[in-house]
Amino acid sequence: MPIIQAVATSLARFSGIVSGLSDKWEGPWFRGQDRAADHLTPRRYRYRTVDEDEIRSEFQRRAVQLILGAQPHSPWERYFLMQHYGLPTRLLDWSEGALLALHFALVSNKGQSNAAVWVLDPFWLNSEVAGERSLLPDPEDQRDKELLDRYLPDLFPTKRPRLPDLPIALQPPHIDRRIAAHRRFVWG
Asked: Residue 150 pLDDT > 80, yes or no?
């Protein structure tokens, strides 16, 4: 799929672009960034000295006191919550809501640079990367376990596994009210 670049200088133009993409794609995802020049880089890769296993381990140990609702039951649920609470992960937040992404793009933009709303067809991405056109891998589904274990290996392995080079689109369970309210989705 080629990269499509479109410029919107009004809400009407933005809505037209989103409508056109929504007609072509089966449920696009959106990500707003206050600087269009910034790459789509997960927080984990912005801080090279981060020991992800150490952070995951500490979050697992301390999360009980942070989380008001149901506690996470799996490594993926904890990982999604780590992202949601701002810890450096290999995930990027996406939304099904174009206007929500536009809000995130503009809320902290001071007008000194162009903002951007990135649009992704998650089904196309997964088809290209993992050969899965019709669904998003579900961390709770045993049929997706082999694929997802490559993206979130065990903590402190004796031999460091090689992580996949390309991302996949994932839809987290709504285990936290804030995640459900923002309709956020992530990929890693």
From this structure: yes
Going by the DSSP 8-state scheme, the letter that residue 45 receives in this structure is G
The predicted model gives 21-48 an average pLDDT of 89
Instruction: Please state, in angstroms and rounded to a whole number, the distance separating the CA atoms of residues 57 and 66.
Output: 15
Q: How far apart are CA 75 and CA 19, in angstroms?
A: 36
In contact, 58 and 150? CB cutoff 8 Å: no
Cα 33 from Cα 59, distance rounded (Å): 27
- Return all residues near 118 (Cβ < 8 A) that are at least 6 apart: 30, 31, 32, 33, 40, 101
H/E element, 62: helix 52-66
β-pair type (29-33, 116-120): antiparallel
Q: Please give the torsion angle defined by the CA atoms of residues 27, 70, 167 and 51, in that order, rounded to the nearest 10 degrees.
A: 160
State yes or no: pLDDT of 147 exceeds 90. no
3-state secondary structure of 154: coil
Q: In the chain, where are the structural domains located?
A: 11-187
As a whole number of Å, the CA-based R_g of the chain is 17
Q: How far is CA 129 from CA 47, 155, 164, 187, in A?
A: 26, 25, 10, 12
